[in-house]
Amino acid sequence: MIWVVIIIVGIVIWAVISNRGGVIPPPKPPPNPPEPVPDPDPHYWKWQLVDITTQRWADYCAYMKKITTDTLMALELQKKVLIDGKWERFYKWVS
Fold it and tell me: Residue 73 falls within a domain, yes or no?
């Protein structure tokens, strides 16, 4: 008897859903517009003096100058040489 009630309730639910047009998923939001493509710089060679690589190289040079003057590494990298009766300090190249 319970099975008959469950089947009838299922048929009623199916009839109500199909009468409304079925289960309708919510609408998708519109897609985001594409990113604009930047125009290529026609004079790119004018900007080569100030770019990321140059800045990194300047940072590296400043770092090497700092560690060769302020730390014990300076003692390992420097070499005193007598030139014309005057002691000069030279540093090894570190890469």
Answer: yes
